[in-house]
Amino acid sequence: MITTNNLTKIFHDSKRGEIRAVDSVSIECRPGRVFGLLGLNGAGKTTLMRLLSTILKPTSGTASIAGYDILNEPEKVKERIGFLSSSTGLYPRLTAEETVSYFGRLNGMDNLKLKRRLDDMFERFGMNEFRKRRIDKLSSGMKQKVSIARTFINDPEVLILDEPTLGLDVVTSRNIIGFIKESKQANKCLLFSTHVMWEAQKLCDDIAIIHQGRILEVGTLDQLRTKTGMIDLDDIFVKIIDGASQHEF
Ligand SMILES: Nc1ncnc2c1ncn2[C@@H]1O[C@H](COP(=O)(O)OP(=O)(O)OP(=O)(O)O)[C@@H](O)[C@H]1O
Ligand SMILES: [Mg+2]
């Protein structure tokens, strides 16, 4: 459902020179599965997701989503994905409800379907309390909930979620994790990034460890356990990252 083939993004920065933010990444995320992307700050997770959502163009390599090439058919790709980005702005003057409905209509949802889904998500995520409140009057966690509702409103088949639980309280995070699980059961394809290891451990069918733009390891939790001899994902993660760093010196 998401396939990348040697996908590469090089940034040119006047001070830092050439930055290989995403370096020959080849991964496959299948429907009915959650694919977790783990990496240190600056590892390339967000850049990879921005490439897949066609916001950025790759320097080289290819990727396709639901069979559509990100370079040749970006419009088709956009129709099929929901992308939750930490940097996507919300319009400060719209209310929570207006923001989510606007995106639903933009994606061609009819009023009845839109209302049903919106009511369901607002209820689940505890958003009714601030339903009619303007975005600029919301807390950061409330804004994050609005962004999540917006991403899921039209029930896209592929979900690309960049740190969905960032800044959310424990109860809300669990709620969102539950929701992602349900989406997986509904045969969606989910690619998500997080710094919260227990979340990844609970949720991911496939886990990729990305470091300096490159995928160091990819596999199921059990496969990574066997490979590293560690049980917990945070130990597995650190061992793999440390192993790569030692090679650098
Ligand atoms: N527009 C840009 N111009 C130049 N360099 C960039 C740009 N965007 C990202 N980078 C660099 O690319 C690298 C990867 O950044 P990216 O945001 O993808 O990391 P990340 O894994 O999402 O990190 P985090 O966990 O902090 O969110 C970093 O070195 C970053 O400084
Ligand atoms: Mg990021």
Structure description:
The chain is an alpha/beta fold. The chain has one domain (2-248): 3-Layer(aba) Sandwich (Rossmann fold). 40% of the residues lie in helices and 25% in strands. It is built from 9 helices and 11 strands. The strands form 2 sheets. A 6-stranded mixed beta sheet has the order 7-8-9-4-10-11, with helices on both faces. Strands 1, 2, 3, 5 and 6 form a 5-stranded antiparallel beta sheet that branches. Strand 8 (158-162), helix 6 (170-185) and strand 9 form a beta-alpha-beta unit. Helix 3 crosses helix 4 and helix 3 runs parallel beside helix 5 (140-152). The radius of gyration is 18 Å and the shape is globular. The relative contact order is 0.17. The mean pLDDT is 94. Adenosine-5'-triphosphate is lined by residues 11, 13, 19, 21, 39, 41-47. Adenosine-5'-triphosphate binds at residues 11, 13, 19, 21, 39, 41-47.
CATH class, anyone? Alpha Beta
Helix content: 40-55%
According to DSSP, the number of beta strands is 11
Which sequence of SSEs, written as H and E, runs from N to C?
Answer: EEEEHEEHEHHHEHEHEEHH
Number of helices: 9
Spatial order of the strands forming the largest sheet: 7-8-9-4-10-11
Strand content: 25-35%
Overall structural class, as computed from helix and strand content, comes to alpha/beta
Biggest sheet descriptor: 6 strands, mixed
**Could you state the oligomeric state of the chains shown?**
single chain
Number of structural domains: 1
